TrEMBL record, chain A:
GO terms for biological process: protein processing. Keywords: Aspartyl protease, Hydrolase, Metal-binding, Nickel, Protease. Coiled coil: none annotated. The gene is hybD. It comes from Mangrovimicrobium sediminis. This is HyaD/HybD family hydrogenase maturation endopeptidase. Ni(2+) binds at E22, D68, H99.
UniProtKB/TrEMBL annotation, chain B:
It is found in: Cell membrane. One of its GO terms (molecular function) is ferredoxin hydrogenase activity. It catalyses: H2 + A = AH2. It comes from Mangrovimicrobium sediminis. This is Uptake hydrogenase large subunit. InterPro entries: Ni-dep_hyd_lsu, Ni-dep_hyd_lsu_Ni_BS, NiFe-Hase_large, NiFe/NiFeSe_hydrgnase_LSU.
Length: 237, 599
């Protein structure tokens, strides 16, 4: 491929806004959009918990930057960057949330279609709390938003993708998208704990014992361990 | 050991070996299933558990009702739009807001688009692998596959031997690299797979084509909703203005260019469904028509609210283009009307759900609904509170409530809609069903099966594509006649609202009947309750011993290999379960393979 045209960039935030630090990815991309404008072919996308529906956007991208809450096993609020082939391993290696299984698979599908992004960056933050339904980002995680944005902007700048800071940030899109679009409003309007139960199912929240099993398949006499590519990060987990 | 007969006639017997599948994979959300099989490997008892707590309603308390749609569409990873639509209908009902005709046409196109998109993704990417074996596809002869393709769909352009050879090589490369990706973790040596290699290769090829096609169909939501995958909705209409004299720069997202684009995508959608999806379903049906398990409640109790109002603001059955009504006790001669406001019709019970009511012998209508969690396990549970080996279905055993219509457990979804439509003599639906029955040479009773559910979904996608065209033409005609109104903001200001009101909104989500009930007090949400399709289908038992659609559908199915529950997955997947909103989005650990334990 020749690089005479500017690369297509996708900046994607994934996660569920309703689950405390799980909303990090979406809040990050939302903040980026309000504070910066980009030249060139750059798409900012709030991917939410959409799984397979995101494949198309991934396939279109030459450079993919993903913001997400990732369970690295580090202290809460730690920001960590992962690049290239390592990225999918962190999106589904450990329990964080539902969508991550989906997202790893989304990357696999893009690869199968022969349209895998040329370059990948994962800007992940270690969540402090997830089991808080209707909650917002914890202070430690919220405090990492500027650094997370800077990391993504640096990465893109190194690849010739420039962003310009807006003179004043765009207002939150509350009129069109409701209170959920404004983190502060979302927090302030939250029903009190005695009104609305905030916790989840102890069994699910604590479970980490779903065993991954192997099912070798026989393909024309050759035995293939169908998910052996997961081995690398099984160890890591 | 316990044995009993359910009100719908199923003989339950939990004495055989217990098989536990947890989690049930390739669904949205988290679900567990336990069955008992007898000495002949026939399922004699089935228990379905929603394993995640749902807090969908409670987080809305005290919030602005005009924002509710934006919250509810975040609950679920797949059907965002249908929740948003149901929510704005619910608020409009409470506040007596009438929407313009254009808004009705646009909402219908968006809802129908979701139907087609969701059905396609469900069949090809979540369900096909229960029927199709990608590993077997490697053995196919590309030339024979090409002949098969030309026979089943002569109008489909992609059918050359070279094309199939290319796909097969790509698949081979993918498998040889050990990266089966989405095809990993299958039971590919199980005798329950019946397709010849050529049909497998054709279907896998269409798996890829469907993935490719998605990129077109999702543009419709982007144009009408302003963005994707979380389009904007609006109480009072739709948020997209129409301007036929200007370009996008003027801030009007709907103009001649974008409307033409949508029109062209609608044509492509209909082509894809008619030339790929429907022929694939018929091909799968041809090989599996001897496997007619999984009917469950579909031939007994089915429920549909109806959807797609032809004219705006009229939600009476005569104006709804999707079937409305309830059938009970298998009597297809009588379709009962359904009233979502009647406190005695739709009620939720919790004797087997991890919630508490002041009096659990009684059900509660959603307007009086309570969502108060209470997690406790029955005395016959094996394992611990945090690591259950076997659930005790005699006690509370699911995070899903048990909704009932006049006391009956009901199946909802494409098959339920099609059974109601067939019973009602819905012309389009009757013609489709008769065509499929004739093509496959099977009796009407074949409809009440896993295969029937899968076929109904495809037929509905075909219907939905045709109605997209109908509403697009209607929208264009209305605009040409000079009506460019898309929203009614008369009652936007909360100062105009009564002090205390309630409303109900309903739709037919891809997975089935969806209802939202709201109570607004002093301009804020006082109570919000949703009964989502998977709550109906995945319902636990009731105090009469009535079982829900999932449990009923597994009964009396023969399992080839206990440790490889292909048949269980096939039938559960046929409902397109979405536990994310019937319970909530939490807890999947990224290790998606089901642990199957046989005890």
């Amino acid at each position: 491929m020749t690089d005479t045209t500017s690369p297509k960039v996708l900046i994607l935030g994934i996660g569920n806004l309703l689950w405390a630090d799980e909303g990090f990815g979406v809040r990050a991309v939302e903040t980026l959009q309000r504070e910066y404008r980009f030249a060139g072919d750059v798409t900012l996308l709030d991917g939410g918990t959409q799984g397979i529906y995101l494949v198309q956007y991934i396939r279109d991208a030459d450079i993919l930057v993903v913001f997400d809450a990732v369970d690295y096993g580090l202290p809460g609020g730690t920001l960590k960057l992962i690049e290239g082939d390592e990225v999918p391993k962190f999106l589904g290696a450990k329990k964080v949330s539902l969508h991550q299984t989906g997202f790893q698979e989304v990357l696999a599908l893009a690869e199968m279609m022969g349209d895998y992004p040329r370059e990948l960056l994962l800007v992940g933050v270690q969540p402090v709390a997830i089991e808080d339904f209707g909650g917002s980002l914890r202070p430690e995680v919220k405090a990492q938003l500027p650094a997370a944005l800077d990391a993504a902007l640096d990465y893109l700048a190194q690849r010739g993708i420039r962003a310009q800071r807006r003179e004043a940030p765009l207002p939150a899109n509350v009129d069109a998208a409701g209170a959920i679009a404004d983190m502060t409003l979302y927090e302030n309007e939250r029903p009190a704990e005695e009104q609305a139960c905030r916790t989840g199912d102890a069994r699910v929240l604590n479970s980490s014992d779903y065993q991954v099993e192997y099912r070798p398949a026989d393909i024309d006499g050759v035995s293939v361990a169908l998910d052996q590519h997961l081995d690398g990060y099984r160890e890591r987990g | 050991m316990s044995t009993f007969t359910t009100p719908t006639g199923f003989q339950m017997d939990n004495s055989g070996k217990r098989v536990v599948v947890d989690p049930v994979t390739r669904i949205e959300g988290h679900m567990r299933c336990e069955v008992n099989v007898d000495d002949d490997n026939i399922i004699r008892n089935a228990v379905s558990t929603g394993t995640m707590w749902r807090g969908l309603e409670v987080i809305l308390k005290g919030r602005d009702p005009r924002d509710a749609w934006a919250f509810v569409q975040r609950i679920c990873g797949v059907c965002t739009g249908t929740h948003a639509l149901t929510s704005v209908r619910c608020v409009e009902d409470a506040l007596g807001i009438q929407i313009p005709e254009n808004a009705n046409s646009i909402r219908n196109i968006m809802q129908l688009t979701l139907q087609v998109h969701d059905h396609l993704v469900h069949f090809y990417h979540l369900h096909a692998l229960d029927w199709v074996n990608p590993v077997n596809a490697l053995k196919a002869d590309p030339k024979a596959t090409s002949e098969l393709q030309q026979m089943v769909a002569p109008n489909h352009p992609k059918s050359s031997p070279g094309y199939f050879r290319d796909i097969q090589n790509r698949l081979k490369k993918f498998v040889e690299s050990g990266q089966l990706g989405p095809f990993k973790n299958g039971y590919w040596t199980n005798p329950a797979y019946l397709l010849p290699p050529e049909a497998d290769l054709m279907a896998v090829t269409h798996y890829l084509e469907a993935l490719d096609f998605q990129k077109e169909i999702m543009k419709i939501r982007t144009i009408f909703g302003g963005k994707d995958p979380h389009p904007n909705w609006m109480v009072g209409g739709v948020p997209c203005a129409i301007n036929m004299n200007d370009d996008m720069a003027a801030g009007a997202p709907l103009n001649m260019v974008t409307l033409n684009q949508i029109s062209s995508i609608i044509d492509q959608t209909r082509d894809f469904v008619k030339n790929v999806y429907i022929p694939d379903i018929l091909a799968v049906g041809q090989f599996y028509k001897g496997w007619l398990y999984g009917g469950g409640l579909s031939g007994i109790n089915v429920l549909a609210y109806g959807d797609i109002p032809d004219r705006a603001n009229d939600y009476s059955p005569g104006n709804l283009m999707m079937p409305h009504g309830a059938i009970i006790n298998g009597n297809l001669k009588e379709v009962h009307p359904v009233d979502l406001r009647n406190p005695d019709e739709i009620q939720e019970f919790v004797p087997h759900s991890w919630y508490q009511y002041p009096d659990e012998a009684r059900g509660l209508h959603p307007w009086d609904g309570i969502t108060e969690p209470k997690y406790e396990l029955g005395p016959n549970t094996k394992g611990t509170r945090t690591n259950i080996q076997e659930i005790d279905e005699g006690a509370k055993y699911s995070w899903i409530k048990a909704p009932r219509w006049n006391g009956h457990a009901m199946e909802v979804g494409p098959l339920a809609r099609y059974v109601v439509g067939y019973a009602n003599g819905h012309e389009y639906i009757t013609e489709q069903i008769n065509f499929v029955l004739k093509t496959l040479d099977v009796p009407v009773s074949a409809l009440f099966s896993t295969l029937g559910r899968t076929a109904a979904r495809a037929l509905e996608a075909d219907w939905a594509g045709d109605q997209m065209r109908y509403f697009m033409d209607k929208l264009m005609a209305n605009i040409k006649a000079g009506d460019i109104s898309t929203a009614n903001t008369d009652n936007w200001n909360p100062a105009t609202w009564p002090q205390s009101v309630k409303g109900v909104g309903f739709s037919e989500a891809p997975r089935g009947a969806l209802g939202h009930w709201i109570q607004i007090k002093d301009t804020k949400i006082d109570n919000y309750q949703c009964i989502v399709p998977t709550t109906w289908n995945g319902s636990p038992r009731d105090s009469q011993g009535g079982i829900g659609a999932f449990e009923a559908s597994l009964m009396n199915t023969k399992v080839e290999r206990k440790e490889e529950p292909v048949e269980i997955l096939r039938t559960l997947h046929s409902f397109d379960p979405c536990l994310a909103c019937s319970t909530h989005v939490m807890g999947e650990d990224g290790k998606e393979l089901a642990t199957v334990k046989v005890r």
